[in-house]
Amino acid sequence: MFSLSCFWDWIHQVIHIILFKFLSCYHYRTTFIFTPFHVPTTTTDHPVIPDEIMTDILLRLPIKTLSKFMCVSKSWNQLIYSPYFVNTHMKLNSHHRVLFRGRNGDFKFCSLLPLFNRQQTVEELIDVDSPTLEEFIVGSANGLICLVNLKFEAYIWNPTISKSKKLLKSTWGSFSTKYGFGYDELHDDYKAVFVDYYFPSFHNVVNIYSLRTDSWTTLDDQLQGIYLVNNSGIFVNGKLYWLSSSTLTYYIVCRIISFDLADETWGSMELPIYGEATHHFRLGVVGSDLSLLHACQVGDTTSDVWSLNDCGLWTKLFTIKNPLTNDLSIVMCVSPLETFSIRFGQSNNEDLLFFLHSVIMMCDGLSRQLEQHIDDVEGYSPLEVYEESLINPLTISGQGPRIRETSQSLS
Amino acid sequence: MVKLKSNDDKEFEVEEAAVIQSEMIKNMIEDGCATSVIPLPNIDSKTLIKVIEYLNKHINMGKAAETGEEDDLKEFDEQFVNMGWEELFDVIMAANYLNIHELMELCCQSAADRLKNKSVRAVREMLKITNDLTEEEEQEIINDAPWAFEGPEIDDTVN
């Protein structure tokens, strides 16, 4: 007497196995001859672990282990390389690291989570190979970091797996360049957006790089009379954001300008506060929301943090008490060229980490008092928070536009 | 009480409150298909005893938080997964068949923890996987990420 539900259970399992076989055949490496997924052969009567269960187990493993297990067998290699696995692994394992830069331009990193512990300053910093020295960090998305060096060479780099892609040389690079980097989910693509302003006419050129097509698109004078302020655009939910000013020489922040990475169009929105000293704004992220820090004047004791909610409305999240030391208090007030970010921990106490201008401050959950936490570890200062991921910029570049049908059936 | 029968023809009586942690059996009961013995052709009695032990311990999961028995349950879980590699996989297969989400989570995590630091050779042996990569292909993968194959933690044992 077998019920309908048992039957559905069985159907469910069959579908799962078929789907898995389809996915695991989807592999990037061209050096291997395509073979249909084969179930590993056994030498005893012991049952073979079904592929979907093995996938479930492998998805729990850290990146170092998975990179090692790529050479267990062809089918494991294909699975761990597949976009389904890479993307699912990133969604299930949200581990963040903090990138530090030394005085020589080299990099080290540590995990983000232990930094929430007040007693601990920093665990040991670990070396990481970077593709170039003396870089400016544009931004990061899904574990990929975009960086630019003094020779106007740009890279997309995954420090977790030590893989980087040098961007094709292009004509970008002017006396004032504004940078942005983010993920276009619609096309499963990573894009760098570099906006050049040329002297003396101040005309602008927007250069957009697509990692998937490994090519640049250039758009002339799209931002007439609009000057982007923050050096790096803030990437939130498929869009890059900049504060904008009506003059280039003296920043008077008047609006927020956005660039949609999927359809490559510009938009604009109002600031939540009017009629005040508007050059004391900074754009940033709180958790995963676009946010604005309104730091008022030098000497002020508090700053307001505003955040844009899902409905597109600005709300004042909280008021924080500026650091008591003068040096840090000034850091809070300097130019809107720099951005900020606020990170939440996992524990119940609501302490926040506040990243601003190469300093990490701790914001007490109850008193909202900011205090110095980490600024320099053995000559290294904190730069950027990024996710651990298996995404390899080299395998994404040059693949051509992605076929949408494939990615939809993977969800 | 619900009666379960293993593939070696042994019958076990389990409280309904315990057994409904299995989505599969819960659906059968709701559909009125569990009036007599439920045959489990994929599960042997040794594995079924382990699964029933888990179900009986987790019977009052919701209450555990209120009565402060969470630590007790955590300790039980730790002890529970302390079993041989093949036995663990039998339990995983049973949990998958019976659709017991929490047990599946516990055992898959335990399997992942055991595999984490294993060498490639050890993994192939533990999971009985035949290496079908050529030497050149294998070397290419190692050269691509040499850092993944280094470190004092790498463990070549197979248990």
UniProtKB/TrEMBL annotation, chain A:
Organism from which the protein derives: Capsicum annuum (Capsicum pepper)
Coiled-coil region list: none
One Pfam family cited in the UniProt record for this chain: F-box
SMART domains: FBOX
F-box domain ranges (all copies): 49-89
Highest taxon of source: Eukaryota
Protein name: F-box domain-containing protein
Automatic annotation (TrEMBL), chain B:
UniProt-recorded name of the protein: SKP1-like protein
InterPro entries associated with the record: SKP1, SKP1-like, SKP1-like_dim_sf, SKP1/BTB/POZ_sf, Skp1_comp_dimer, Skp1_comp_POZ
One GO molecular-function entry: cullin family protein binding
Keyword Transmembrane: no
Keyword NAD: no
Recorded GO CC terms: cytoplasm; nucleus
Source organism superkingdom: Eukaryota
SMART domains cross-referenced by the UniProt entry: Skp1
Record domain SKP1 component dimerisation: where: 102-148
Residue stretches in coiled coil: none
Species per Swiss-Prot/TrEMBL record: Capsicum annuum
BP GO terms, sorted: jasmonic acid mediated signaling pathway; protein ubiquitination; SCF-dependent proteasomal ubiquitin-dependent protein catabolic process
Membrane-spanning residues: none
Residue ranges of domain SKP1 component POZ in the record: 1-59
